[in-house]
Amino acid sequence: DIQMTQSPSSLSASVGDRVTITCQASQDIAYYLNWYQQKPGKAPKLLIYAVSNLETGVPSRFSGSGSGTDFTLTISSLQPEDIATYHCQQYDSLPITFGQGTRLEIK
Amino acid sequence: QVQLQESGPGLVKPSETLSLTCTVSGFSISSGYYWGWIRQPPGKRLEWIGSIYYSGTTDYNASLRSRVTISVDTAKNQFSLKATSVTAADTAVYYCARQRGLNNIESWGQGTLVTVSS
User: Fold this and answer.
1) How confident is the model at residue B101 (pLDDT cuts 50, 70, 90)?
2) Which residue of A has its CA nearest to B107?
3) Is the sign of the CA dihedral A103, A104, A105, B4 positive or negative?
4) pLDDT at position A16, please?
5) Which of A4, A50, A65, B11 is deepest in the core (most CB within 10 A)?
6) Which residues, numbered 76 to 105 in chain B, qualify as contacts with chain A under a Cβ-Cβ cut-off of 8 Å?
7) What pLDDT digit, counting tens, does each position of B49-86 carry?
8) A15 class by beta-carbon count within 10 Å (0-12 exposed, 13-18 middle, 19+ buried)
């Protein structure tokens, strides 16, 4: 199975900050990488697919980049409603696997 | 807009069978898409269990394949998960979801907590 490792595991930032979360795959997954946002007590929500494509309705302050084994989710200006846990997910090969999640808090 | 709702017992005894159903509204399962189950044990990462295409073709996580069955009932617009011989390690929030291919999990149910305990 492809192992997905996110860093950091938790992050505290101020409103307006630029926030970056990284995800590393244990092998080359090309661009087969998604990001999900999970607010407390809620189901995950697809945020970005295929590395850099925003799902419909996702604010443009979210962006994704990377290829191969190293990927990044960036929030250009953190908003209070962005408090959530963010998960990366690979779909290069089955089984689909997820990172351990990055918990984002507001300072 | 598609909506998914999980239903089933919240408590299952060890060695017994876990059974969950996902009822889909706002979209006909027969129209396409993959339909999947994902779980999240307390404090752990999300784990894909398996998915079924509307035609009945299934894909499973190999780690669970021997114990898991996913089926679809297009007449009721539902799909189901059965997991046999459960242990405490199967305690988790279980989500049903609609997938674009096997790739993007684009719509999720609210999730249901299943606890395995005697």
Assistant:
1) confident
2) A45
3) negative
4) 97
5) A4
6) 95, 101-105
7) 999 998 899 999 999 999 999 999 999 999 999 999 99
8) exposed
